[in-house]
From TrEMBL:
Tree of life domain: Bacteria
One family name in Pfam for this protein: TPR_8
Alphabetic keyword roster: Signal, TPR repeat
The keyword Nuclease belongs to this UniProt entry's keyword annotation: no
Name under which the protein is recorded: Tetratricopeptide repeat-containing protein
Signal sequence bounds: 1-29
TPR repeats by residue range: 93-126
Species classification: Bacteria, Pseudomonadati, Pseudomonadota, Alphaproteobacteria, Hyphomicrobiales
Gene3D superfamilies assigned: Tetratricopeptide repeat domain
Keyword Ribosomal protein included in the entry's annotation: no
InterPro entries: TPR-like_helical_dom_sf, TPR_rpt
Region span, Disordered: 29-54
């Protein structure tokens, strides 16, 4: 490559990174400290021995918000996993997704994958799980799978939602850059 081409490429990568920074921060904001109800929230399907609080219960919501803060403000993923599991609502996509995210941030990709898949089983249209699982795919070098996840996000919320923009931006990064999302 010529020096001019290298300089242009460097400038383009820098510009892309500068433009993408607000999108990375908005991906965090796209999540909510209030979980959405499970895809099938009928009370008839509730387990007979389920003594855990309801998703609408203030105690559950307080616990979920505390775990959310532990993840995004304190970056204490191990503590957040314990907080989320203690809620007793693994069937809620938001809860399973955040557990998966926390395991991914801790570098435990196999366990993270299990939780992402559990979240999608609970709600196949859970856009944040498709986003985070797509980022997981990128970290594993699975660009085609991440592209599939991007397509699912587009089907669910279009191309203007923060989750789509975040994953699309990550996919636009050169392969093998070693970026961790």
């Amino acid at each position: 490559m010529t020096k001019t081409a290298i300089r242009l490429l460097t400038l383009a990568m820098y510009a892309t990174a500068m433009v993408a920074m607000p999108m990375v921060n908005s991906a965090k904001a796209a999540g909510s400290d209030t979980p959405s109800p499970p895809a099938d929230s009928s009370k008839d399907k509730k387990k007979k021995n389920d003594k855990s609080s309801s998703i609408d219960d203030p105690k559950f919501l307080d616990g979920y918000r505390a775990a959310y803060t532990t993840i995004y403000d304190r970056h204490d993923y191990a503590a957040a996993i314990a907080q989320l599991k203690a809620l007793g609502h693994d069937n809620v996509a938001d809860v399973a997704n955040l557990i998966g995210y926390s395991y991914r941030k801790l570098g435990d990709y196999k366990v993270s994958q299990v939780w992402y898949e559990r979240a999608l089983q609970a709600d196949p249209n859970h856009v944040r799980t498709w986003q985070y699982y797509g980022l997981w795919q990128l970290e594993q070098g699975n660009r085609e799978s991440a592209q599939y996840h991007l397509g699912r996000i587009q089907q669910i919320c279009g191309t203007d939602c923060a989750e789509y923009k975040s994953l699309a931006m990550a996919l636009n990064q050169p392969a093998g850059t070693g970026l961790v999302y």
